[in-house]
From TrEMBL:
Protein name according to UniProt: Cytidylate kinase
Keyword Nucleotide-binding carried by entry: yes
Organism lineage string: Bacteria, Pseudomonadati, Pseudomonadota, Alphaproteobacteria, Hyphomicrobiales
Binding-site residues for ATP, renumbered to this chain: 9-17
InterPro entries documented for this protein: Cytidylate_kin (IPR003136), Cytidylate_kinase_dom (IPR011994), P-loop_NTPase (IPR027417)
Enzymatic reactions: dCMP + ATP = dCDP + ADP; CMP + ATP = CDP + ADP
GO MF term (any one): kinase activity
UniProt subcellular location: Cytoplasm
Length: 212
């Protein structure tokens, strides 16, 4: 049976770091699905189009080029906000859903991280993890990360951004951020990346022992 690991959680909870480590450990392909939404927003901005132009956003999602996902500018702070705006458009989500499902259908299995992997993209995943951390800890992490990339920002500003984005992602009607009923919650507020990985691996091994 292919091992499909679904990882969801709010901004800077550590889901991407964990997904990467798990993918390496289990020898599986990894998709950071947030990058798809960031790339759609980036394509719109680059073309001089408004993020509120829903038809243009849908077209950008339908014609998304996999090659564009490696652009480091997708990681900019502003792109997280822009991605959150266009991700509420149902047609954008529908276009990216097919993409993500194809990725998850790899015969070996896959690790995907995002907001709706356990609830919408891979409802039959072998294991579902919902990663959380306090908003202050998440803001501290993002602050350190941005400082490392030379993007200066105040901790207060980042905290406000994170809380606004959580609220928007959780309250939208199309595939809101929500823990799947059969997901396991992992709070990483007090865990570094290595400790979170150990906990996640233990959860996955228990699940594998059950599903055989
Ligand atoms: O890394 P961070 O958690 O800050 O953001 P991200 O995972 O790159 O996602 C950026 C935005 O894309 C999120 O705020 C969501 O609005 C959207 N997104 C989504 O709607 N569904 C996903 N599966 C992944 C991201
Ligand atoms: O993907 P997501 O936005 O949920 O978060 P991430 O990109 O995995 O992690 C955000 C930042 O927090 C990165 O710089 C990680 O190295 C760091 N991190 C941490 O300090 N402690 C953890 N348990 C996980 C991640």
């Amino acid at each position: 049976m292919p091992l499909v690991i679904a990882i969801d959680g709010p901004a800077a909870s550590g889901k991407g770091t964990l997904a990467k480590r798990l993918a390496t450990h289990y020898g599986l392909p990894h998709l950071d699905t947030g990058l798809l939404y960031r790339a759609v927003a980036f394509a719109l901005i680059q073309s001089g189009l408004s993020l509120e132009d829903r038809a243009a956003a849908a077209r950008a999602a339908e014609t998304l080029d996999a090659g564009s996902l490696t652009d480091t500018r997708l990681r900019d702070r502003a792109m997280g906000e822009a991605a959150s705006q266009i991700s509420a458009v149902p047609e954008v989500r529908a276009a990216l859903l097919a993409w993500q499902r194809r990725f998850a259908a790899d015969p070996a299995g896959a690790v995907l991280d995002g907001r709706d992997i356990g609830t919408v993209v891979c409802p039959a995943a072998s294991v579902k993890l919902f990663i959380t951390a306090s908003s202050l800890e998440r803001a501290r992490r993002r602050h350190r990360e941005l400082a490392g990339r030379g993007e200066a920002a105040s901790l207060e500003g980042i905290l406000a951004d994170i809380e606004a984005r959580d609220a928007r992602d959780s309250s939208r009607s199309a595939a809101p951020l929500r823990m799947a009923d059969d997901a396991v919650r992992l709070d990483t507020t007090e865990l570094d990346a290595a400790a979170a990985f150990d906990e996640a691996r233990a959860i996955i091994e228990r699940a594998r022992a059950t599903i055989g």
